[in-house]
Amino acid sequence: MSRPATDTLLDPEVISKAEALGLHARYVVEGYMAGEHKSPYRGFAIEFAQHREYSHGDDTRHLDWKVVGRTDRYYIKQYEQETNYVANVLLDGSESMKYGSGKLTKLHYGKVIAACLSYLILNQRDAVALGMFDTNMRDYAPRSDNKSTIHNLMARLAAFEPKAQTNIGAVLHDMARQTRRKGIVIVISDFFDDEQAVLDGIQHLRFGGNEVIVFHVMDPYELEFPFMGLVEFEGLEQVPKILTRPGEIRKSYLREVEAFRTRLRDGCERNNCHYVLVNTSHSLDEVLSAYLAFRLRTAG
Amino acid sequence: MSFLNPIMLFGIAAVSVPIIIHLLNRRKFQKVVWAAMRFLRISVEQNQRRMRIEDMILLALRCLLLILLALALARPAFMSKAADVFGQSKVTGVVILDNSASMAVSDGTQTRFEKARRAAEQAIESMPAGSATAVLLASDVVNGVIPEPTFDLNLARRVVREAPLTDRATDLFPALNRAITVLQERLALRKEIYLITDGQAAGWRQLVEAQRALERVKSEIKTHIVLVSEREERNLAITELRLASGLSPVDQPLRFEVQVSNFGREDVRDVRVGLSVDADPPSDEFTIETVPAGSTRSVSLFARLRSAGFHHVSARIPEDRQPADDRRAIAVRAIKEVRVLVVDGEPGSEPRESETYFLRNALVPVPADQAENYFVKTVAGNVAELASARFDDFDAVILANVPDFSNAVAQRLQQYLRRGGGLMIFPGARVNTAFYNEQLFARAQLLPASLAPARGEADQDQKYFTLQDKDYQHPMVALWNDPAAGTLGSARFYRAFPLNLPATGATNAPAPDAGLPEVVLKYSDGSVAVAQRNWGLGRVVLFSSTADTAWNDLPVRLPFVPLLHRALGSIVQRQDEGLNVRVGSRFARRLSTELLEKEATFLKPRRTEGLRETRRVELVNGSPVLQYDQTDHAGVYEVKIADPAYELKFAAQSHPSESSMDELTLGQVNSLKTVANVVTWTPGFTLKGLVERDRSGFEFWLPIVIGALMVAGAETFLGQWFSREK
């Protein structure tokens, strides 16, 4: 089966269909892994735990050839980290995520990120849990390391629609309290919320021994503010309209956005949390590279 | 400060336009759904105040720009001297140059007209760059050589230098009025009139009206009156020359009356008056012993016209400083013969009893052996012969005591008159007054008056009435104003028909050929004795009493012959009255049909020798007429038609008033000074300095326009600056 282009995946119609979402996420990930990008595992010595006999469908890259040479029998290496982590993928499903300068909204993009990461995590034999939230967790799929879970996850992602504002900090605190095992928390959001509360939540998670990576999703218009003329801006989250001439305040706006990002990024760094800015006009490759680099760091 | 174009101030209302646009623009915007509102709000709050201030600044600049443009278009002006720092304001002016006959007076080196031209040039030279001026020539008409102000001042100067002098009279008020009208139609800060004249009183006959007109516009128009004359103490002029004889036959001594007037302050002695025919040396001269100051003397001089046709007769006196009025010429047509049909209404048994006995003898007042050669040829006829008479064979028809005649004869008489014939009527006891009053007066309107029932008794000689003995108004009898000519008052009238001229606005519609009736001669009691009326191209003279001695003794009185001849001359040479016109009047003469559409060449009088013009003989009211109206110069005009060969002369005479040396009185000059700046031209006089001193004021529109441009530039720059990204 030919691999579809990444931009085909970024089609809202595709994203809204679970099966298509899952299929495409798989293709993206496999394409990424097998294609131009080196496997971060290549050359990397992951601690060997035990053998198990080869069964049909196992990845032949993990065959222990020494054993084959000695015994003429096929055994797969199992590694130390295969079942080490639980990755909690948290997707912000608030109203502000509904914004998109084109057909693709931040939420659409966030769903794709969540889908791809879920697939990647399961593919790497980690467990994945998926949660979608606004003021609190709206939908949560508990951890599973079974690949068949992917269909359930895709369905939840495809069906989720935002309804309310956001309270990221509270959600992170809840997550920190409920998580019993150390794991990875992946937060996908635009973080249009109280930054300090967010950072407090991240800190709470970090205190619990979790690794945290944030994907800060922003639309290119939110990053560039290219509007001209006289524009009336109407907020998505019940705020008063603003009539202004964007051209004359662009620099000021960009300074504010940059300052916001800087605060968030600096806060993440202080908490040893990985920060990735995601521009919804860019390809998913950067996202996947960022996660895998992060995963590599945490595995070491 | 004042505004030359105040209506443009309404343009200030346009300042509402940018305000309205500003308000309307706030309603036209793009709508965007946006998530990152908090960053937007912070940016807006940080910049809102500044943006409002910038909007207000730009709005204010745009409003200011419109206000400045409206002000500039309204053409504000400062009238104070302080504004002179900005330089002299432009002038819109009218230069009026008097070119009437009196401007020809010389002081020995220069004429008044030459001085006036120089003054006019100075007036134009004094105008600042960018000024405009019109040039009018003023005499008794206004000649707009440059009728509307022109910015081409070189053209104005050239027109002044080339302006012609005329022999016309003077009336300056129409020119002033026209200048005022021209300037009032113009929007200008400085409006000026320059009237350059000699100050002759005759030119200010409408002085009161002129003062009123200048007073009315004094606040907006500055008038300068430049008087170029130096007081002239002496001027002798020929004020009239006329043919005193009733007719102008060939080779007969003709009497001409010459009037010499002394307009000076001193008596003049030994004034030699000469009379010439055509270009011949003087045929007669007379020396007037004294012409007292302010008075007129008449002399009679004689000349003969050697051939039939048109001649001119000139009278001269020695030239003085106004040579134009020291000569005067008239045109005269010499006639070879006059054929008269005399119709006798009561022939009688004896020649002496004939109604026309005295008429025929008076018409040919020479011995029988000379009668054949006399220019008046009479043919006697009776009433019965009227029906078959060929009237066109005669220059005049005289009806003496003719009772009446048929309608056919009346119709033929009318046709004869229409073609230029002459009719003289003497009533008597036999006339059918009902016929004369109803047919000839009321219906045909041929007679100048109706015949009222006769008054007086013819059978006695005790009671009688006489003709007037002075104040002869009509040209036919003006001769007897000269006592030397005798008096008409000596004749006795025993019976006569009172003549009733039609009242003004009579109910009968006037016949198209009938002219207005005129009183020629009155009785001493004021009733009309002789009347005349033009009819078609002819004329009718109606007497009130008999041509013989049945009712009066006029035929046996001395004045009878000259009166009869003058009456005959009046009806025979009626058209020749148009040979002498006043300067500026139109010359018109009916010619024969064969000359219709022919081109005639006019040679103007001596002063403009060589100047020729052409006109065509045109049909006017069904008759071929030659007309000419460029009679600005006094003297003889010669007219020639090449094919068929035809020549005639006519003359234009200047108005005697132009010879008057009377100038504006001191009181009149002072009254003019209340409405105008009156200066007297003297040698070395410079008009420029005088008028520049009086000029002040500055139009302010240019600095305002510059200001508006600067505001526009500021608005453009700030608009760009404010809209940059911040």
Tell me what the structure shows.
Chain A is an alpha/beta fold and 300 residues long. Helix content of chain A is 43%, strand content 20%. Chain A is built from 11 helices and 10 strands. In chain A, the strands form 3 sheets. In chain A, strands 5-4-3-6-7-10 form a 6-stranded mixed beta sheet, sandwiched between helices. Chain A is elongated. The model of chain A is unreliable at 1-7 and 36-49 (pLDDT under 50). Chain B has 726 residues and is an alpha/beta fold. Helices cover 24% and strands 29% of the residues of chain B. In chain B, strands 17-16-18-19-28-27-26 form a 7-stranded mixed beta sheet, sandwiched between helices. A 6-stranded mixed beta sheet of chain B has the order 6-5-4-7-8-37, sandwiched between helices. In chain B, strands 29-36-35-31-32 form a 5-stranded mixed beta sheet, with no helix packed on it. The chains are: A alpha/beta (300), B alpha/beta (726). Chains A and B meet through β8, β9 and α10 of A and β2 and α2 of B. β8 of chain A pairs parallel with β2 of chain B.
The major pleated sheet of chain B works out as: 7 strands, mixed
Helix content range of the residues of chain B, please? 10-25%
Strand numbers in spatial order across the main sheet of chain A: 5-4-3-6-7-10
The count of helical stretches of chain B stands at 14
Question: What is the subunit arrangement here?
Answer: heterodimer
Q: What is the number of helices of chain A?
A: 11
Question: What is the gist of this entry?
Answer:
The complex is a heterodimer of chains A (300) and B (726). With 300 residues, chain A is of the alpha/beta class.
List keywords for this structure.
heterodimer, A: 300 residues, alpha/beta, six-stranded mixed sheet, two-stranded antiparallel sheet, 11 helices, 10 strands, 43% helix, disordered N terminus, B: 726 residues, 24% helix
